[in-house]
Every structure is written in structure tokens, then in C-alpha cells.
Design a protein that fits this description.
With about 300 residues, the protein is an all-alpha fold. The protein has one domain. About 60% of the residues lie in helices and about 0% in strands. A hairpin with a 2-residue loop joins strand 1 and strand 2. The longest helix has 27 residues. It is globular, with a radius of gyration of 18 Å.
Length: about 300
């Protein structure tokens, strides 16, 4: 294991957290499913002849991760003992929820310290939770809505103004308004290949559940499309969350520590950082969502 990952976790509260446990377990399926979807989507892009090296493609790959990760987390949730079993979730329904969001005007709920080229992941994390909220309703949980897409003539241009959005609210949101992104979204996110892989990923997560609990270690080890570096980071990251985090502030602290170390590592490639950062963005927002509902 790379020395980089032998870090002590941040100083956190001493008592063993309980209310986040199931939330972290379900969210781990969501996040590692999202990282898996990045690879799946690159394969889908190759099939239909779309290059995946540009900025727009990176954003679309991340969106695909959110959509497929959402399906994976529902599979892990439905396996929990005494869970409120959801109706079967389809790629079409998940994509429709995403398509209805006013992506350039999303008001980010959780801001992580991603490098500039990945700041759009903060917006995507908020969109992730809005998609999840459309598919399942938790009693007594108030999750603030995000903006829905309106008539283009009534919409403000991407970025808005500081008086309306509070300065950094739109930081990174412009990534969802580029011509390149919109073209790649049309080609990739609505492809039959990705829809089939969405179902396959959900089934794989279901098969990785033992006694009603998603076996994250087994799932990660079985994923041939993860590198050794990625497997090491994913396993240690969730180990630290399970052992030390007691609330969402702890989760954010741990996530930011990992973001900083991963970004400054020369042993981790850019494609690996891409998947790791997507995993972290989805994990934090997914934990926030599921832990509120599963308490």
C-alpha cells in the first residue's frame, strides 16, 4: 500500500457513532458504484465513437456515475433489514429527474475542497440528493429542493450574479452549460448501452449484499476495472469513515483530508484521481441523504 494512505484520521469525537452506520454502508454502494460507472461510460463512449478526453466528457462521465450510483444505493438500501423497500428504479426515471434540474443554477449544499477542475462535483453532489429525493420519501425529513429547469427565456444566464447567488454559489456550475457537455450528455446518458449497464450494476450490488448488508470490501475487490491504487484508497477511506465519523461534519473533514492528499500525490494518475474524487463527492452527499432517512 502506498505510504500516502497510511494517515491518521483527523481528531474526531471519541464515542462510537451509530446513527450514521447504515447511511455509510448504503452510501458506499452509491459511491463505488459511481466510480464503476465512470469506466462503464467510457466503454459505452467507445462503442458509439465518442472521445472521453475533453472537459465536457469528464463532466458527463461524472454525471453517469451519479445516475448509476443512485441505482446502486437503492439496491443496497432495499437489502437492509426492515428497510422501506423502494419500487424498482430505472435509468429512464433517474435520468428524467436529472434532466429536469436547472443544473447551471444549482445551489450547492455541501462544499468540498476540490481542485478547480473538479469543483463541478460539488454541484453534482447536490443534484445527486435531489434525484434520490424524487425516488424515495423519508418521514419527518426535510430536504430543501434545488432549482428545476424553467423556460429558457425566463432563465438567467449561467453564473447569474452575486446578489442572487451569494458569490460562490455557482462555482463550477458553468460546466453543465457548455455545448460540448450538452452534446456528450445527449449521446452518452441516453444510450442503450449505459441503460443496460445501469441494470447490471444494480444487480451486482444486490449480489454483494450478505445478511442484508452491502459487502463493500468484497464488491471493491471483485471490480477488475479498479486499479490497485483505487482499491486501496476506497477501502481505507470507508474504513476511516466507519471507525471514526459520528456526523456529517466528521465526514466532510475526512473527505477534505483525502482530497488534499490525493491531489498532491505523484503516485496517483489523473484518471485515478477522477474516479476517486467522484467517489468522494457522491459518498459525502449520499451519507448526508441516507443517514437522515435511516435514523
Amino acid at each position: 500500500m502506498i505510504q500516502l494512505f497510511c494517515l491518521q484520521p483527523p481528531a474526531l469525537k471519541s464515542s462510537w457513532w451509530r446513527k450514521f452506520k447504515n447511511g455509510v454502508i448504503v452510501a458506499s454502494a452509491d459511491a463505488v458504484g459511481a466510480a464503476t460507472a465512470v469506466v462503464i461510460t467510457k466503454e459505452a463512449a467507445a462503442i458509439i465513437g465518442v472521445a472521453t478526453g475533453g472537459t465536457g466528457a469528464v463532466v458527463v462521465l461524472s454525471v453517469a456515475g451519479v445516475l448509476c450510483g443512485a441505482g446502486a444505493s437503492f439496491a443496497a438500501h432495499d437489502a437492509l433489514p426492515d428497510s422501506q423497500v423502494t419500487e424498482p428504479v430505472t435509468m429512464e426515471a433517474i435520468y428524467t429527474h436529472f434532466d429536469n434540474l436547472d443544473k447551471p443554477k444549482t445551489d450547492v449544499k455541501i462544499v468540498l475542497n476540490f481542485p478547480d477542475r473538479y469543483k463541478f462535483l460539488n454541484s453534482l453532489g447536490t443534484m445527486h440528493n435531489e434525484i434520490m429525493k424524487k425516488e424515495i420519501t423519508f418521514p419527518n425529513v426535510d430536504l430543501p429542493p434545488v432549482a428545476l429547469r424553467s423556460d429558457p427565456e425566463e432563465s438567467d444566464p449561467p453564473g447569474g450574479n452575486d446578489d442572487e447567488c451569494g458569490g460562490d454559489t455557482y462555482s463550477g456550475n458553468e460546466a453543465f452549460a457548455t455545448v460540448e457537455y450538452m452534446e456528450y450528455e445527449r449521446l452518452l446518458l441516453q444510450s442503450e448501452t449505459l441503460a443496460n449497464d445501469f441494470v447490471a450494476l444494480k444487480n451486482f450490488v444486490s449480489q454483494s449484499c450478505e445478511n442484508g448488508i452491502f459487502n463493500r470490501q468484497q464488491f471493491i475487490e471483485r471490480m477488475d476495472n479498479f486499479t490497485v491504487n483505487e482499491k486501496d484508497v476506497f477501502q481505507l477511506y470507508y474504513d476511516v469513515l466507519m471507525e471514526t465519523a459520528e456526523n456529517i461534519d466528521d465526514v466532510i473533514s475526512i473527505a477534505n483530508r483525502y482530497i488534499d492528499v490525493i491531489e498532491n500525490s505523484t503516485d496517483i494518475s489523473e484518471p485515478e484521481k477522477e474516479k476517486i474524487f467522484i467517489n468522494i463527492a457522491i459518498s459525502v452527499n449520499s451519507i448526508d441523504f441516507w443517514s437522515k432517512g435511516l435514523n
